[in-house]
Specification:
Elements lengths: L8 E6 L8 H6 L8 E2 L2 E2 L2 H9 L3 E8 L3 H4 L6 H4 L3 E5 L4 H9 L8 E5 L7 H11 L4 E7 H7 L8 E3 L2 E11 L5 H10 L6 H6 L3 H8 L5 H11 L4 E5 L12 H14 L1
Parallel strand pairs: 1-4, 1-6, 4-5, 7-10
Antiparallel strand pairs: 2-3, 6-9, 7-9, 8-9
Helix pairs in contact: 5-8
């Protein structure tokens, strides 16, 4: 369980749409990806319910270009009535929207960020992430390849190779203080190139670029080094549950998620 002394957390749930049509939304005939049904339920419903049920989370802000898509859809209308939930209209990009939220006096740190397609998010993941992120200015959740393949050997992810293994993102982030602003500002600068890992690494200095190229860095050490580069505490949270890195990004992901949900029933 989460330490009862843990800080009260504001969760930000990303539920926006990309400029190009989403294949899952098109196939399902819905207006936005977060409304795509997974096992008969809109995918946003799963992480939203996990967040509002967690005792360390005081409120959930749903960041989207079109709040009316959710408030006007019967399956997700409960979000508008829930006392912990509020909608925020997003700006031009995720990073710029986050920077604007950080400037608000009514949103104290820490902030926990996750995504509407994190269908398998549960209390155990939140317990672990919050407990291990406390005290950091920035923390990022990742899953090591062996953790995933031990449970789901056929699952395909995008992996980053470091000295301490192959890692995939778990779409859970922590911003513990205003010291995170410079990193998010950098994110804003490269947001359109976020798939170009070399360009992003180069922004952190030549050692990070060379270290990544030669596989000299552990992921944990590399994240800590990046934190020191910005004068903050940055931390990796290596998630225990394989499901933490299985998001509903493709049709095959949805099929796997539905089989996992069925096995839990």
């Amino acid at each position: 369980m989460t330490d009862p002394a843990a800080p009260t957390v504001t969760a930000i749930l990303l539920a926006g749409s990309r400029p190009v049509p989403d294949p899952l939304a098109q196939a399902a005939g819905v207006a936005a990806k977060p409304l795509v049904p997974v096992a008969g339920i809109a995918m946003i419903d799963y992480p939203a319910r996990a967040l509002v049920a967690h005792p360390a989370i005081a409120r959930v802000l749903i960041l989207t270009q079109s709040p009316d898509l959710f408030t006007g859809t019967p399956a997700t209308a409960w979000l508008a009535d829930h006392p912990k939930v509020a909608f925020e209209t997003s700006g031009a990009g995720i990073a710029s929207s986050l920077l604007a939220l950080m400037d608000r006096a009514d949103l104290p740190f820490p902030l926990l960020l996750t995504t509407a397609d994190h269908v398998l998010l549960d209390s155990a993941m939140l317990d672990q992430f919050i407990a291990q992120a406390i005290g950091a200015d920035i923390a990022v959740a990742m899953v090591e390849r062996d953790t995933l393949l031990a449970r789901y050997p056929a699952s395909r992810r995008t992996w980053l190779k470091f000295r301490d293994g192959w890692w995939s993102g778990a779409n859970i982030f922590w911003f513990g203080s205003a010291k995170a602003r410079p990193v998010i500002a950098l994110w804003q600068d490269v947001e359109q190139d976020r798939k170009k890992g070399w360009k992003i690494l180069a922004a952190f200095g030549p050692f990070a670029l060379i270290g990544a190229a030669l596989r000299l860095l552990t992921l944990r050490g590399g994240i800590a080094r990046i934190g020191r580069r910005f004068g903050l505490v940055a931390r990796l949270v290596a998630m225990d549950k394989a499901e933490a890195c299985i998001d509903a990004d493709k049709a095959e992901d949805v099929a796997l998620i539905e089989s996992i949900l069925a096995s839990r029933a």
